[in-house]
Specification:
alpha/beta; TIM Barrel; 2 domains; two-stranded parallel ribbon
């Protein structure tokens, strides 16, 4: 029997087995096993998931449901095509893939996707986002180079029949508000950062996106997967997706054969997807948030909410 067939047959009981592997609390695993299994092939409403919608503009205004989750994948890893793509299609989940030609992308097709594979992701309905040509960290010193970095990826997308990206991920999670105007001029609607500065980068933790308070070009990652992540780390991030908040998750390769410090194992990743399904999460791409969020509403100060969270964390630590 093939591994995929074993996983399908295992159903909810797979989580009990994985509890010892990825740190799932046994109480949650047993509860998942006892819950009614969500059958594949149902509608988005039935499964709690949602296929990535086309890039046709939509009017914001839909109520933000609880358990709304965004999956994002950085750095053009080969495993995005070979492993992540078929798994997302199996679960019916949407996602955004942030593309860069940094490092040795041009010649190393063992660790990085080809543009034909990237185009296939687009044709499958997934979103292709911009991660700069050279994976350039954007700071006050480098922001002058951002226009050419954005345009290079947009041009490559056009060459391969992919729409110009409307989503951006800050390379290395470095960011500056000085880049906002440039991003806007290049058609970027949403830009995702990491969990810092509220949490240290190494923690892989973050806050859920709060529309109206977080700037659309400075969206926090509720979780940033690392090799030592376990299912409880994902659970902590996803459980924030309630009361109008949206959990944006950041992944790299599954595995990331070029950057092992941000890699996720396939076993863990499959457990994460199974958890999202069992929790009836609606899993979408970043661009899909236009259905729920008025992107013209920018806070007066993009860092106000960040300072508020830092103060809350400091106060909690002092107790």
């Amino acid at each position: 029997m093939k591994k995929r067939e074993v996983l399908r047959l295992a159903g909810g009981r797979l989580l009990i087995v994985l509890a010892l592997v990825v740190g799932l609390p046994l109480s949650l695993a047993r509860a998942a096993d006892e819950s009614a299994d969500v059958q594949r092939g149902g509608s988005a409403e039935e499964t709690g998931s949602q296929q990535t919608v086309a890039s046709t503009p939509v009017q914001a205004g839909a109520a933000i449901p609880d358990r709304l989750v965004v999956l994002t994948f950085d750095d053009s890893s080969k495993s995005h095509f070979t492993i992540v793509r078929p798994l997302l299609k199996e679960y019916g989940f949407g996602a955004t893939f942030f593309i860069t030609e940094g490092w040795d992308f041009a010649k190393n097709k063992t660790d990085y996707m080809t543009w034909d594979e990237i185009r296939q992701l687009h044709e499958d309905g997934f979103e292709i986002g911009n991660h700069t040509r050279d994976h350039l960290g954007i700071t006050e010193r480098t922001v002058g180079r951002l226009p050419e970095q954005l345009q290079a990826i947009a041009d490559r997308c056009q060459e391969h029949g992919i729409p110009a990206p409307v989503s951006f991920a800050w390379p290395g999670n470095a960011w500056t508000p000085q880049a906002f105007d440039v991003l806007k001029q290049h058609g970027i609607v949403f830009a995702r950062r990491g969990g810092a500065p509220e949490y240290p980068y190494e923690a892989g933790r973050g806050f859920a996106y709060q529309p109206g308070q977080d700037h659309p070009l400075l969206l926090p990652s509720a979780g940033d997967a690392r090799p030592k992540w376990a299912l409880q780390d994902l659970e902590r991030a996803v459980q924030q997706a309630r009361a109008g908040r949206i959990a944006i998750l950041q992944f790299h390769g599954v595995p990331d054969t070029a950057h092992d410090w941000v890699s996720s194992s396939r076993v863990n990743f499959e457990a994460y997807l199974r958890y999202l399904q069992l929790q009836k999460c609606r899993v979408v791409s970043l661009r899909d948030l236009r259905r729920y969020v008025d992107v013209t509403q920018w806070p007066d100060d993009a860092t106000t909410i960040i300072r508020q969270r830092q103060a809350e964390l400091a106060a909690a630590a002092d107790k």
